[in-house]
Amino acid sequence: MIEYLRMQIKEYGLLWGNLFVKLLFLTPRLPYPPAGGDKVTVYSHIRLLSPKVDEIRLLTIIEREDEAELARQFEAEFPNIKVETVLLPKWRSWMNCALGLAVSPDPLQVHYYHCPAFSKRARELTLENEFDACYIHLIRMMPYAREVNTPRKILCMTDCLTLRYERSAKFAQGLGGGD
């Protein structure tokens, strides 16, 4: 996975070495502490990229206010990372799923992480900063890619998820039936 990310960044013009870049990471969960698959993946990517770039800005969703302290601990591990959190309580995520199931063919995980405050902050960050690229972690964060204005957007999905979406796309439909 790390090698794939490295290839993506090289392919889209971000150089390793002397070019100083600013990256925006959009993640559905705070990657700290690095326990669990998606947290470990993001943490590893940040650990790999941190020495190679000027700045990493991480915008992430938390379910409880006390998770904001974990964000401060994460920042302490990397001198060039700034973490911003947006609160999306679990009850709200479940409401999003119920509403989304009734009206949209999008995956439930996209609805689970639907958060207007996150969308607004992502848009503001790209207006306030000149990021060279945006790293979007998993399909559940793709709706926010529309909100960011960066020269490059990199969607990181694990190989098994990519394969699952490719295979299931032809069968996708909402409760109302096929189009």
Overall mean pLDDT: 84
Q: State Rg.
A: 17 Å
DSSP, total strands = 5
Output the number of helix runs: 8
In whole angstroms, the N-to-C terminal distance is 35 Å
Secondary-structure-derived class: alpha/beta
The percent range for strand residues is 15-25%
Briefly, what CATH class? Alpha Beta
CATH 4th-level superfamily: Nucleotide-binding domain of ferredoxin-NADP reductase (FNR) module
Biggest β-sheet: strands ordered side by side in the sheet: 3-2-1-4-5
Low-pLDDT stretches are none
- What proportion of the residues is helical, as a percent range? 40-55%
- Biggest sheet, open or closed, and with what strands and sense? 5 strands, parallel
The CATH architecture term is 3-Layer(aba) Sandwich
CATH topology: Rossmann fold
Write the layout of secondary structure elements.
Layout: H1 2-11, E1 22-27, H2 37-49, E2 55-62, H3 68-77, E3 81-87, H4 90-103, H5 108-112, H6 116-128, E4 133-137, H7 142-145, E5 153-156, H8 159-168
Parallel strand pairs: 1-2, 1-4, 2-3, 4-5
Describe the structure.
There is one protein chain. The protein has 179 residues and is α/β, with parallel strands linked by helices. The protein has helices at residues 2-11, 37-49, 68-77, 90-103, 108-112, 116-128, 142-145, 159-168; strands at residues 22-27, 55-62, 81-87, 133-137, 153-156. Helix 7 (142-145) links the parallel strand 4 (133-137) and strand 5. Strands 3-2-1-4-5 form a five-stranded parallel beta sheet, with helices on both faces. The protein has eight helices and five strands. It has one domain (2-168): Rossmann fold (3-Layer(aba) Sandwich), CATH 3.40.50.
